[in-house]
Every structure is written in structure tokens, then in C-alpha cells.
Write a structure and sequence with these properties.
It comes from Ruminiclostridium cellulolyticum (strain ATCC 35319 / DSM 5812 / JCM 6584 / H10) (Clostridium cellulolyticum). This protein is α/β, with parallel strands linked by helices. It has a single domain, classed as Rossmann fold. The protein contains 3 helices and 5 strands.
Amino acid sequence: MLSIYNNSEDLIILIHEIYGINPFILDTANRFALYGVIFCYGSRIRDYTDISPSCPALLLFPSHEKSFNVRGFVSSFKKPGVEVHTLEGNHGFADSYSSEYNKSSAQKTFALIDDFLKENSSGS
């Protein structure tokens, strides 16, 4: 799924649920002038903790993930300019088409994304 946010001054692309895209985005953030990157369910980031983005980053994880220990990762992952949030539910909690959809967590997710976009747009 690819979502695009455009406020007429900025173009921010949100890439969601694409396996292995995290290292590409982190590397891209370090080579180009991006206003920010957002990872929703970005579980593969756990394999690339040595890469730090040069722009603000928002990481949104489910409280339960089959592929790794979210709580352990979140408690140990500290990087400047990186906001990390854990939301109640399983992988797919913010996807209204998923059987794992959690309306409350989805609403919190989109509020966090909206705040992040407002704080990190070039117009601010």
C-alpha cells in the first residue's frame, strides 16, 4: 500500500507494508533532503539499527508482532530525531481491510502521523 500526503508545499510519501523497504528508506533519507520518514509496522528495521536517518522519523509498531519482540526492541531503540510508538493490536491494526484492524489504535496512529507531518513540513 502506498499513501501520499501532499500539502502543496511538500510531498511526503508514506510507504506501508513493503517487506525490506526500511533500509532503503533510511539510506534514501541520508542521501536526499527528506522532511521525514514514517514506518508503520516496520519490523525489519530491527535488522538495521546501525543506520540513523538524517531526518525526523516516526516508527509505529503493534503491541504484538509474530516476527519479533516489539517491547524489547522499542525499549532498547533510542536514536536522536526518531519517535517510536507502540499501539495496541497486531500487525495490521491500522488497516481497515485487515482482520487485525483496531479502530482505536488506527485513530491514534493517524493522529500521530498528522502531528508528525505538521511538525516536519517545510512550512513550519
